[in-house]
Design brief:
DUF3013 family protein, alpha/beta, 9 strands, 3-stranded mixed sheet, 164 residues, Rossmann fold
């Protein structure tokens, strides 16, 4: 029986969802995790001084902004969620359901589509606000439930790539 490859499935799902930003997938074979990276160049016409979560300062136009999610082997590594929008632990033995990946990518599409509007709102309120994109678990679960109720949630298992 052929096992669904997590790397191939995630790449396919991201391509099918047409994200309106630069994106990439980084597979770390030795540590068994997959990072999903969505990058934006956001306009900063007034050259406001901005500091990211890593302490880097920017005042150029445009300003780089990244959203990251990580899918990882829960038995091999521990992940601190503070640098990721979403952390998704996966069992090496049981994998993850295709429907769960489908819901994850669909919801990431929704969140990344909000970035330009949220950025515009942020620029109008500097310095009283902090720019960030937040994972809203209740919205994700509603999307997931809709997929299940409309028979678009596949329970077929997807696994990390296996290499010799």
């Amino acid at each position: 029986m052929e096992r669904n490859n997590l790397l191939v499935v995630v790449d396919k799902l991201i391509k099918e969802n047409y994200f309106h930003c630069e994106w990439g997938i980084e597979w770390r074979e030795q540590r068994h995790y997959l990072e999903l990276i969505f990058q934006f160049n956001l306009p900063n016409p007034n050259h406001f001084e901005l500091i990211d979560i890593y302490g880097n300062q920017y005042n150029q136009n445009p300003v780089p902004f990244e959203v990251r999610a990580i899918i990882y082997d829960e038995e091999l590594i521990k992940v601190e969620g503070k640098h990721y929008l979403k952390t998704v632990p996966v069992s090496r033995d049981t994998g993850i359901m295709y429907g769960e990946l489908f819901a994850l990518i669909r919801y990431l599409k929704v969140l990344t589509a909000e970035v330009p509007l949220k950025w515009t709102e942020y620029l109008a309120n500097i310095p009283t606000t902090r720019f960030s994109i937040e994972w809203r678990e209740d919205e994700f679960q509603k999307m997931r439930e809709t997929l299940v109720n409309t028979s678009r949630y596949s329970e077929s298992q997807v696994f990390f790539p296996q290499f010799n």
